[in-house]
Amino acid sequence: VSQVPVAEGKSVQQTVELLARRLEALGADKQGTFGVDCETYHTAGAIGSQGQTGKLMYVMHNSEYPLSCFALFENGPCLVADANFDTLMVKLKGFFQNAKANKIESRGTRYQYCDFLVKLGTVTMGPSARGISVEVEYCPCVIANDCWNLLMEFMQSFMGSHTPGIPSVFGAKHDSVYSPGDTMVQYMELFNKIRKQQQVPVAGIR
């Protein structure tokens, strides 16, 4: 899962269309849509104690796994629960409070190209588009490090110089089996990166 910068002089939507055209030119077929969303919760009561915010928890959903809900801590474990976890979070509001304005999601089109599955998404916060996400999966292989070079080669064919480096989650896994939680960790990192980019004030603009 990686972020693609918006092409110079183009909007987020135009850049997504440009990437989609490249994929279709390779021969990729549209296979429906996908969505990944993320709600941020902070530990209640922690705000205000020495001015520190509490630990953040991210509750995420992925349309590829409609019966699951993912709860992740930064640099921490990834809990995979069933979809009723959302109702549990409402009951835990004494411990975790929803940072309401912080919902972020990526939605877009799924493409199949031979053994590759590509998801091209527009990342939005509220009504505005904030960035572009690309998720690439090589379906026959479950050991991530075994197919990384192949993934790189394929990504270069339509992402060019914006092909990402090896994800940090791979470093921790070595030769172990890749899981849906690993994908969600990458989305969490991507969403947090995009959130931080929005918070940086641009100097010189009046």
UniProtKB/TrEMBL annotation:
Coiled-coil annotated spans: none
Its Gene Ontology cellular component terms are:
mediator complex
This protein's major location comes to nucleus
Q: Which domain of life is it from?
A: Eukaryota
Query: Which Pfam families does the UniProt record give?
Result: Med20 (PF08612)
Q: Where in the cell is it found?
A: Nucleus
Gene Ontology biological process terms, A to Z: regulation of transcription by RNA polymerase II
Q: Which InterPro entries match?
A: Mediator_Med20 (IPR013921)
Keyword terms, alphabetized: Activator, Nucleus, Transcription, Transcription regulation
Q: Name one GO molecular function term.
A: transcription coactivator activity
The record, for PANTHER family, names: MEDIATOR OF RNA POLYMERASE II TRANSCRIPTION SUBUNIT 20, UBIQUITIN SPECIFIC PROTEASE HOMOLOG 49
Quaternary data: Component of the Mediator complex.
Q: What does the record give as the function of this protein?
A: Component of the Mediator complex, a coactivator involved in the regulated transcription of nearly all RNA polymerase II-dependent genes. Mediator functions as a bridge to convey information from gene-specific regulatory proteins to the basal RNA polymerase II transcription machinery. Mediator is recruited to promoters by direct interactions with regulatory proteins and serves as a scaffold for the assembly of a functional preinitiation complex with RNA polymerase II and the general transcription factors.
Q: Which family does it belong to?
A: Belongs to the Mediator complex subunit 20 family.
Q: What is this protein called?
A: Mediator of RNA polymerase II transcription subunit 20
Q: What is the lineage of its organism?
A: Eukaryota, Metazoa, Chordata, Craniata, Vertebrata
Q: Which gene encodes it?
A: Med20
